[in-house]
Amino acid sequence: MEQLSKTLLQQQKSEIVEQARQQVERELPERVIQIGEGNFLRGFIDWMIHELNKKGLFNGSIVAVQPTPRGKVVPKLNAQDGLYTLAQRGVEAGIEVDRREVITSISRGINPYSDWQDVLKVAENRDIRFMFSNTTEAGLTYLREDFQENISPLSFPGKVTAFLFHRYTFFEASAEAGMIIIPCELIDNNGDHLQEIVLQISKDWNLPEAFTAWVQEHNLFCNTLVDRIVTGFPKDSIEKFNEELGYEDILLTVSEPYHLFAIEANKDIADLLPFQEAGLNVHWKPVAPFRERKVRILNGAHTLMFAAAFLAGIDTVKEAMDDNYISRFIRKGVYEEILPLLNVPEDEKVGFANATLERFLNPFNQHYLLDISLNSIFKWRTRILPSFMEFVQKNDTLPQALTFSLSALLAFYRPQRTEDGQVFGIRLESHTPYPIRDSAEVTHSIEKLWQGEQQDLKYTVQEFLSNEEFWGVNLAQIPALPETIQKHVEHILSHGIRSAIDTFLND
């Protein structure tokens, strides 16, 4: 079977190939440099630029730069002339979707460790105004390294600094040569953080103070929030995909239909990248409200459900949503106890909650609850505790679903045995063991507090709630909480999760 390429586009007859051929024939100028060429960027930013180009709103292509020496994507990307297929699979507006499209927005890939001069040539292109990146959270960190003009820096911020310095020098400090830099790494204030590191590296390298001033005055580092599940290359089903498409695609990428991109920048920048005009879910606004909404609703719902659903014998998020008892419990927590507390317009927060639960029903994603369980004490503290405390303060009563989720969490962390340093719990219905995946400090504390269970469950609950290292506050001081948690845990251990949920839902 022939591999996807520009030559293939000329030879094969199909609707998907014909659409791509028309885009490729436009030969758009390079206007974006992208540090990173992995699944997420190809299923998110590169797809968005492709959408802009389809509608004649941007008319530019992307140069993708390999971020680490061990990268393997650039040779594959160049072998396919920058082309790859994106499969969007999931539920959208209540309808299951499964669509394919050849993405044509990438012009080429560059390995900076062998071809650094090619990257510097990109810096000399006045049409290049935008820089996107996704090098993971580990990539957006400071590394002290030497500056060698003809060799690529190892770190992502080092590459940005060297790129900007070459551009500054080549264009003789022109204000018009400044870049709009839009990082997509999942850390708070990612744009501000990247700029701070670039300025520190400039100092390390003894670059001119005038360059530092140019970076600060004429380059914009945008804070962002990204949200889309991109599962990447479908290894287990690629033969079926290739057969359906009629060609081989070694870079085929799978994503959900849902996407959200929040960027802190003004209208002038938004006009240069008219994502919204292309019908994309992009917002040029402060990121903080979007981050809080995502953490409290999407991440909060994951943490809310996982322990109860897993102890009920459920393995995935989709299965949890399909279970009548667990689904009622999740919906009560989200719509009745989390949403009312968010200072967001009603239509926005309800719309986001509806979209979130629709994403949970995606039949193509196997999102395992045990994966969500990692470090769940910390997750409950950061994702649910703020909603819990606000609910108590506002209503002078306990939120039923959020309280039950804390009870289920304690039951999930109930240790049965330790093997080679790994603590295991036991599933209530099937009596099968599972790993309790948390830090050694947390699991050790949990083991100690459960040791008194045979004598007094009240002691276990009291110690759990009063552990300020877990919660940052003494939860045992909240009226009626210790008694309620104890009652729930007793019911869970004696009669099972579904019976316990049924009891509190019908109180």
From TrEMBL:
Catalytic activity, as annotated: D-mannitol 1-phosphate + NAD(+) = beta-D-fructose 6-phosphate + NADH + H(+)
Keyword Metal-binding belongs to the record: no
EC main group: oxidoreductase
Keywords: NAD, Oxidoreductase
Domain annotation Mannitol dehydrogenase C-terminal: ranges: 287-492
InterPro entries recorded: 6-PGluconate_DH-like_C_sf (IPR008927), 6PGD_dom2 (IPR013328), Mannitol_DH_C (IPR013118), Mannitol_DH_N (IPR013131), NAD(P)-bd_dom_sf (IPR036291)
Protein name: Tagaturonate reductase
Organism of origin: Caldalkalibacillus horti
Lineage: Bacteria, Bacillati, Bacillota, Bacilli, Bacillales
